Structures are given as structure tokens and as C-alpha cells.
Amino acid sequence: MTAPSGGGGAGHGHAVVLGASVAGLLAARVLAEHVGQVTVLDRDDVTPAAAAGARGGAAQGRHLHALMERGRQILDELYPDFTAKIAADGVPTAETLVGTRWYFDGARVTPVPTGLTSVLASRPALEAALRAATLGHDRIRLLPGLRAVGLVRGSGSTRAAGAAQGTGAAWSAETVRSAGPVRSAGPVARDGVVGVRVEPPAGDAPARTIEADLVVDATGRGSRASEWLADLGFDVPREETVGVDLAYASRTYRRRPTDLGGDLGVIISTLPGRRGGGAVAQEGDRWIVTLAGMLGDHPPVDAPGYERFAASLPALDIHRLIQDAEPLDDPVRYRFRASRRLRYDLLRTPAAGFVAIGDALCTLNPLYAQGMTVAAQQALELRACLCSGGLDDLAARYFTAAARPTSRAWSIATDSDLRYREVEGRRGPRTRITNAYIPRVQAATRSDPVLARNLLRVVNLVEPPSVLLTPAAVLRTARHTLTRRGQS
Questions:
Q1: How does pLDDT run across 74-133, given as a tens digit for each residue?
Q2: Model pLDDT for residues 226-266, shown as the tens digit of each residue
Q3: pLDDT for residue 298
Q4: Rounded CA gap, 116 and 367, in Å?
Q5: What pLDDT digit, counting tens, does each position of 190-213 carry?
Q6: Is 308:234 a contact under the CB 8 Å cutoff?
Q7: Out of 173-177, 311-315, 337-341, 389-393, least confident range
Q8: What pTM was estimated for this model as a whole?
Q9: Could you tell me which of 24, 49, 192, 450 has the fewest CB atoms within 10 Å of its CB?
Q10: What is the dihedral of CA 431, 435, 437, 442, to 10 degrees?
Q11: Edge-to-edge strand list for the sheet holding 14-18
């Protein structure tokens, strides 16, 4: 799988992307259309031979992932025929609600064509395909096994934030050559971020500076960019958080063609309770089964406790599946404490030469599976900003533009989480109205195919939430609510 080697643009300048996960790869792809060289750094060894399985830098690598339809569309735009090629390599695909099952409050959403394609790849498989396609671009190079330890500020006398320069053996000549412009801290005329300090993740080699016209933070939820920017005297973004204390427990099983009656997945929503889960077919004739619990009601990772938790879900499809399936490993846990958003878009003067993308900009409750798709939407906004103005004043323009898709996803996720009384956060009139209305829409989807289709298209970030608020949608929802009351 390859990406176009061209891409237009002036072809001048150097961009450094910190992180070779989904967000970082997408950023590299759009940057390659506008700068002469893009260098992607990652602390993990993400070469093909080493990155076949889950890796430390992708915390959820062994758990269920979902690429929403809008994200899939963007991948096909940036990498033509991406879906077809990954399917040809053995990744299952299915039409949402037709080849997969969804449940709200224990009731199945009526099966109806939605025009949505579910790409059922494991995170390692999706990343590997995306990485191969991205690195097929002749302006993009990968430097694995390096971690960022700080940023560098220009303005005449360079200041470096982060780890102090180490001592010991020098880096290999090959590493220095591959990194692009590498230098010790020295004067740079332009104010703003002008480079990044990097070092190997182990050993005592000294930190080095890689010069850049743009640094992109795609280091995920563990980003230290705010700390580095503050050390350099730049304004730092305000942080917004919504605590959910979520935990996953996941296990893989051997898949048989007759499992789930031939369906390729089942999703059981946590709402309105605290427990939910998903079982999805993946490459290699496997099921990935992920159980989830909110607000401290976490699934256990011992096998008997895992099965008991599955039996407690509001629908029994997953429990029935794992009772008869052959486990391929032991359950593993992943914990997520809070959604977090960094409001770079509200800064009066963001640092020039620096942007953030993906979880480094906004970390969303993974229950709603928005992360990769929102990163792809942010990448499109970055591309549009580069097309309209290049690197000039890019930070301010990009953060404003990226706030649009980020805000939509943030509202969907946090409004849903704020349905729980135990979740702390501001509940304004919009949130209260939404949380009174949406459960009625979800209940109506068990029998109304129009609402089922529209709700899943909103969930997949293809349609705006407003499609559920049209007079026709409100009338259909009210009709279902009144019918249920009359039957009770």
C-alpha cells in the first residue's frame, strides 16, 4: 500500500512530527504536500519487523478500536482505496447495523442499511497499513527509537526546554544524518518554536536538537508540550477535564464462521447503566472482546470474573459468544480516568512553529470511539490551513479551525458522560435538554429504521447532531415515546 509521491506545494522547509501513531502519520501525510521534508519521530521501534503487535506508545493497542465512518472516508481521501486495500489484506469489513449488532439499554437497534462501512482492524494492523502508506511518500522519513525531551525557542538566543543535555557516547553518524538538520543550541533569528530536543529512550547519549520550521505534537495523552512551552516563556492552554474512571478488560478468541450467526460484531452500550462491551471480528480469524465499566465499576481480568461480568451486561450476545469460543490469551486491562481538552484555540498568541493533533490536543472517552476519526478531521483542517496560508501564522489559524470538529466530538462525548450524576461537570441547558432527549431517540431506534440510521450516522461523525432535532425526527421520537407509555 503506497501513498502518492507527489503532493504539490512549494516543497520548502522542514517539519518534525512527534509520534508515529495514527494522528502523527496523518499530520505527516498532509504536511508532505507543503514542505520539503517531514521527519517523524517515535520512541518505540515502529519498523515493520518490530511493530507487528501492540506497542507501548499505543496504550489501547490490545483493546477494541473503532474507526468511525468519517475517519474511514478521510483515510480513503488521503490514501486512495485505503479501505479496499486493507480489506484485501484480510481485515474484515461490514456495513454498520447490517453486518454488526448495536444495543442501547439492552434493546437491539433495528437492522437497517446505513451506508456506513465498519473497518474491523486491530489497532496494530491499522497502524501498520497507515504507516506503510505514509512512508511511501518520498518527502517523509521515519526515525524510530527517539523520544522528544523538549522544545527549542528561537528569537536570537535559543532556549531549550525539557531535559538537560546528557553526557556520554555521541550518537551514531547515521542517526544524525537521518534526522535532517541537527545542531547544538545556537542563535536562531525567528521567534517561536524552532526545533525539538531528542534522545534515545535508553542509554546516556546526549540530547540533540533537530531544527524545524514546524513541530507537531502527536505524542498522545501523555504530551508534555504545555510544560515545555511554559519553560520557554510561551502562553500555555487552559485544560478542561471530565472524569469518568473507565476501565477496559480485553481478550481475544478464535473466531468461527457460525459465531454470532455470521455477524461480524456486537456493541452493547454502557448507557444508561455503567457496564457495556463489544465483540468484533478481526484479521486472523479472531474476536477481540472488550468489556467496559464506568465510574469504578471495572471488569475483572481473571477468567471466571471476566465471564461473570459479561453475563451481567444488558444483552447476552457477548456472554454467549465467549462461552463457546476458544480463548487465545488472558484478559488485559486498560484504565482511562478522564477526558481532557487543551484549549490552544483560546490562546491570544499561540507559539509560532508549533501545533498539536490527536490526543495531544483532545483526549476523548474511548467508549465513543471518536479518537482516530477526530484526529483525521484535525488533519484535514491542518491541510486546509496549509493550502490557504502555508506556514505563516499557522498555529493560530490551525487551532481555530481544529476546534470545530474537536468541539463537536467533545460535546457528544462529555454530554453523554454527564448523564451520570457522579460525573462532575457543568450541566448547562443544552446538556440537560440533550440528556433528556437522546435516550428517547435511542429507545426509538429499536423499531424506527429512520431514527436508527440517522443516530448511527451522527455517532459515526458523518452527520451533525442537528439531524436528530429536525421536526420530523422529534415527531418520530415523540410518537415512539407515547406508544411505549400507552403499552406500559
A1: 999 999 999 999 999 999 999 999 999 999 999 999 999 999 999 999 999 999 999 999
A2: 999 999 999 999 999 999 999 999 999 999 999 999 999 99
A3: 96
A4: 19
A5: 789 999 999 987 766 788 999 999
A6: no
A7: 173-177
A8: 0.91
A9: 49
A10: 140
A11: 140-144, 37-42, 14-18, 214-217, 354-356
Q: Which pLDDT score is estimated for 394?
A: 97
Side chain identity, residue 234: F
- Per-residue pLDDT at 58 exceeds 80: no
- In order of 187, 246, 385, 447, the CA distances from 11 in angstroms are 25, 44, 16, 54
Rounded to an integer, what distance in angstroms lies between the CA atom of residue 191 and that of residue 178? Answer: 26
